[in-house]
């Protein structure tokens, strides 16, 4: 049996924590296994193959300061806050034919049983209580090595979960993998007595490591420096978190006071506008050739859009519509 190295991330920055996973997976010695518990401040983590714009309520996310980060593994989008505990296993795959997410979910089910909560590993990658999901899991496999990670909603703000992941599916047509929305719950209401999240984390550590040869590992300053480099080069970048989305089409409608109704159609690839057209009862020339030329190739993010539209006569295209409102409309979910 390989020795298990137990770690704890002291950071609640999702970009750092996902960079930590990549660092351990790619660079730490492979003659041992790794397990750790971690938390993120308010964050949506999207799956590797998802269209970020299609998964999130952009206006709500911006208003509430929710970070959006893409992970290495597939699966659907999940919401993290400080009422949520995340766990990560990294180990050898063994026989790929026998590999499944259930094997990693069962230790969670057994741990909850120890504190009087009856949970079930459900479907492909969920863990549920009374049919309600509290844990989503996903995996990344490369070179006979596997990273399995999951969420455990202990006392998350469920009202935010629903609003943050509330993008309008009618607006988007995409080749990305779409999340399946599920009824969700927290673990805490099912406990017989009162328990805080730190106590719960201690119980998780104790029972999920039971029977293993465990050694605690503290990240060194050199480890942290390398993790921060990965964070800067990938997980802090718009190109990874949004631009890595698959090709998609977006169609949206809105009425602007003093301007009229507008419908916009865009094709987007690698986060950049490839085609743009507008329709409506507004006054003005609409999507002129000059406007299209400015927008095509532009990153679909606020700073880039404002920059390419700087000095452009938007009034000539859409009467009584200012640049800020137009950019906000193009970005909103």
Q: What's the quick description here?
A:
This protein is α+β, with helices and mostly antiparallel strands. It is built from 11 helices and 15 strands. Helix 4 packs across helix 6 and helix 10 packs antiparallel against helix 11.
Tally of alpha and pi helices: 11
Euclidean distance between termini CA atoms? 49 Å
Identify the overall geometry: elongated
Kindly state the mean pLDDT as a whole number? Answer: 87
Word description of this protein:
The chain has about 325 residues and is an alpha+beta fold. The protein is built from eleven helices and 15 strands. The strands form three sheets. It has an eight-stranded mixed β-sheet, with helices on both faces. It has a four-stranded antiparallel β-sheet with strand order 11-13-14-15, with no helix packed on it. Strand 8 and strand 9 form a beta hairpin. The longest helix has 15 residues. About 0% of the residues have low confidence.
Features:
8-stranded mixed sheet; elongated; alpha+beta; about 325 residues
Q: What is the topological layout?
A:
Elements: E1 4-8, H1 14-27, E2 33-38, E3 43-46, H2 52-55, H3 58-63, E4 67-70, E5 78-80, E6 84-92, H4 102-114, E7 120-122, E8 126-129, E9 132-142, E10 145-153, H5 158-164, E11 172-174, H6 197-208, E12 214-216, H7 221-235, H8 238-241, E13 248-256, E14 260-269, E15 272-280, H9 289-295, H10 302-309, H11 323-331
Parallel strand pairs: 1-2, 1-12, 3-4
Antiparallel strand pairs: 2-6, 3-5, 6-10, 7-8, 8-9, 9-10, 11-13, 13-14, 14-15
Helix pairs in contact: 1-7, 4-6, 10-11
């Amino acid at each position: 049996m390989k020795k298990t190295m137990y770690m704890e991330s002291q950071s609640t920055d999702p970009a750092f924590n996902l960079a930590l996973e990549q660092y351990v997976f790619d660079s730490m010695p492979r003659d041992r296994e790794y397990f750790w518990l971690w938390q993120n401040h308010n964050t949506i983590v999207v799956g590797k193959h998802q269209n970020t714009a299609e998964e999130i309520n952009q206006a709500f996310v911006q208003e509430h300061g929710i970070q959006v980060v893409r992970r290495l593994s597939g699966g659907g989008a999940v919401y993290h806050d400080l009422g949520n505990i995340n766990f990560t296993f990294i180990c050898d795959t063994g026989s790929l034919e026998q590999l499944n997410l259930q094997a990693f979910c069962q230790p969670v089910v057994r741990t909850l049983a120890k504190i009087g909560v009856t949970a079930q590993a459900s479907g492909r990658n969920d863990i549920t209580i009374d049919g309600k999901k509290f844990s989503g899991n996903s995996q990344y496999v490369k070179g006979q090595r596997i990273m399995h990670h999951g969420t455990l909603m202990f006392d998350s703000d469920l009202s935010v979960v629903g609003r943050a992941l509330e993008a309008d599916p009618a607006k988007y047509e995409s080749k990305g993998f779409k999340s399946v929305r599920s009824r969700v719950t927290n673990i805490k209401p099912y406990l017989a007595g009162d328990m805080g999240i730190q106590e719960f984390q201690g119980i998780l550590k104790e029972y999920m490591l039971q029977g293993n040869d465990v050694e605690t590992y503290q990240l060194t300053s050199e480890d942290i420096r390398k993790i921060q480099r990965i964070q800067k080069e990938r997980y802090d970048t718009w190109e990874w978190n949004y631009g890595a989305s698959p090709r998609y089409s977006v169609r949206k409608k809105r009425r602007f006071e003093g301007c009229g109704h507008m419908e916009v159609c865009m094709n987007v690839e690698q986060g950049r506008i490839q085609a743009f057209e507008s329709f409506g009862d507004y006054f003005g020339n609409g999507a002129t050739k000059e406007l299209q030329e400015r927008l095509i190739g532009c990153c679909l993010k606020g700073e880039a859009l404002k920059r390419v539209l700087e000095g452009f006569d938007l009034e000539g295209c859409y009467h009584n519509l200012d640049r800020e409102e137009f950019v906000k409309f193009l970005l909103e979910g």
